[in-house]
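It would be a great kindness if you could assist me with a short task in structural biology. The matter concerns a single protein, recorded as an amino acid sequence and a row of backbone structure tokens. The record follows directly beneath this note:
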Amino acid sequence: MPVLAVGLVALWGTGLLIAGLTDLGRFVIPNRLNLFLGLVALLALLLALFGGQMDPLRALLHAAVAAATLAAGIVLFLRRYIGGGDAKLLAVLALWSGPADISGTLAGAVLLGGVFSLLILAFRALPLPATLLARPALARLHEKGGPVPYGVPIVAAGLMALPGSTLATALFALG
């Protein structure tokens, strides 16, 4: 198993984790981070393709799924269901996941998102000491009617799907 393959999987997982933590703390997923994740996914696809572990049609289908997911994410963003960073994060997650894994990953994100939203609602119903409310991230997270950092469950679903994903499996099969 090439070091480059392991490095790409590690960079992907680390980038996802940073995206989730950034969204939780700042309610934003920076464009640079989504671009970084997209480049890592693209490099992983190219490595799998040129390493003989993925055929060109499957690689193109990964890109098509990402484009379709971005289009759906833009619609959700325009309707104010999700943030712009969430839409882009879903698209790069789709680039990594491809057609074989995206439905399970999205279903996981929806289920985890529901649980996470209920936890946020419960958290918002609790009174917080002034010392905790003095922290801007906690105060915003506690704000009734405030936004929910949906990048957190998206990232959780992506990390849960990572070990068995078609792309990670193809990378680990490189000789």
Summary: Residues 134 and 140 are 10 Å apart (CA to CA). Residues 84-125 form the longest helix (42 residues). The chain has eight helices and no strands. The chain has a mean pLDDT of 95.
